[in-house]
Structure formats: C-alpha cells, structure tokens
Amino acid sequence: MKLNLFSKLVFATLLAFLINSFVYLSFGSIYSSKILNYAEFQQQFGSGIYQHRILSGYLLIWIYEFLSTLNIDYSIFKLKFFDADAEPKMYLSFFLLNTFFLILSSAMMVLITETKNFVATSSEKLLMIAVAVFATAFSQFVIVPYDISSYFFLLLFFLSLLRYLEKNEVSNLIILVLMMAVSTLNRESSALSLALAGTLLYSEFGLKKETLIPVAVLGITFILTYFGMRLMNGSFTTNDGNLLFQNFSQPKNILGLLFWAVFFVLPLMLTKDKKAFNNIIVFHLLSIPYIAMCFYAGILYETRLYIPLFLTSLFLSRTDTKKFQ
C-alpha cells in the first residue's frame, strides 16, 4: 500500500504522541523521581553542566508557569509518584515538552525518509520510523528537559544537510550555522551534528575545500556558542565527575553497554551498501569526543546517551550519497 506524505506524517506524529503518552501516563518514574519538583529541578539544572543547557530548561519553566495559571484538577490523570514531594504539574510539564518535541522529531524522520537520497521501500521507511520512536520513548525512564529536543535539532540538521549537499549554496550553509548555534544553546551534544556534517561531506567530496570550509564554519559556530554560554554564566564546567570505573563495574551500567552494542549493530545490519556501512563507522569515529564524555562523565545505564548516535546511524544506513552527484 502506497501512502502519500501527509498520511505518513499523520501516522508518525500520532505514533509519537501515543507512545509517549503511555510512557508518561501509565508508568511511574523511579529513576527521575527527585527532579519532579520545581525547587529540586531548579537546584539541579541551575548548576554544574546543566546550567549551560538553557533552551529547553526555559521552555519547561515556561510551560510550568503557564500551567500554574490554569485551574487543572491533576487527579484526573491518576498519577502515582515514588517521591512524596513530586508535583503533578512539573511532571505534566515534562510530558508536554518532550511529547511536543518527539512529535516534531517523528515528522523530521518522515521528511528525511522522503528525500531522494533515502533508499528504502515505503514499508521499510515506516518500520524504521517506528523503531526510532519506540527506542526514543523507551529511553525516557530518565526524564530531562533537553534530550528529546536535541534529537529534533539533530534530525532537522540532518534534513537541512541533505539539502545543502544537493545545492551547495551559501544560504543553505547559513541555515546550518543557525541550527548549530540554536542546538548548542540546548545541549552540547550538538557536536554530533558537526560529526554528521563531516561524515556526509567527506563521503561526497573527500578532503577538499567543499568539505573543509563548511566543517570549519560549523565547528567555529559550535565553539563560539559553547564557550560563549560559559563566559556568560561565569563557569566553564564540562562534566560533573569521573564515572569511568562505575561504567565498567556496576551491573546496570554494563547492561547499558550492551544496549550501546546492540543498537550500534542494528543500523549496520540495515545498511544498503558498503558506503553506508562506512559512513556509520566514520560518524562514530568523528563522534569520539561525545562518546568519550559519555563513558567518562555519563551513566551508561541511561540509554538516552546513545539514542542520538542510534538515530543518526539508522538514517545514515539508507542514505545514498551517490545521488548527490
């Protein structure tokens, strides 16, 4: 059955809304229960590395304050919390923010699969989108304000990069620069967009000026935004401590390592050809700074850390760079 673009967009957005609604409204969050309180959230996300991830933090507080103006009976949601201090209003704010961005992310997935560079049948495209949505929603046993929005910015950058590769116009590069700046204001994992740009530009042009100049411009944009936020905040914090030993010794984190391995292999098994396979490998090599920080300062049990790598690899697996020529 052949579906038009509108039908695919409706399906993908409904899927994202439904899955996220069940995840948030039908399961209790043990892992993130402490920050489901306005004061605790402000204390944690207003210091350390978190204070530099400003965009989605502001959006979450805006939603929370907007909900405060409404006379909502939160008992209708029948929410159950593991922490007595948890606020239904804060939890609902997380739900609205992350569901909104998951819906936008699913729309970006559809648009990426509908480009002429994406080689797959209509059924394969829908299945890949479904896998991506389910994997993303599953990772939200860790609730934060910036992850899902960062996936949206990464996918939007992916789509815009495909358009830049098709037409190497300055206007398209300017759009990529603006996206890099905005996504870095949201989360420093925007560096993965730089790795993606390096991967596809190198695959298309090799080590020529057509690759080096755009990557340099995007890299400078990332650095200026990254350090600019730290100068404004008067803090150059890059991590909240060394967790390397725990990541290789604690059972939960070893389970997280297994998640990384399985979801690294899956896109490789779906690749259309050797070039797509190599692009995924190159993307991971260029993403080593992000990966290293995940192992050093992240908690590998939090599967969300691998999701941006997985989403990018999944759509790289069927992207045909030969069609740019």
Automatic annotation (TrEMBL):
N-terminal signal peptide: none
Keywords for this protein: Membrane, Transmembrane, Transmembrane helix
Transmembrane segments: 90-113, 125-143, 149-166, 173-200, 212-232, 253-270, 276-301
Domain of life: Bacteria
Protein's name according to its UniProt entry: EpsG family protein
Protein's organism: Kaistella yananensis
Lineage: Bacteria, Pseudomonadati, Bacteroidota, Flavobacteriia, Flavobacteriales
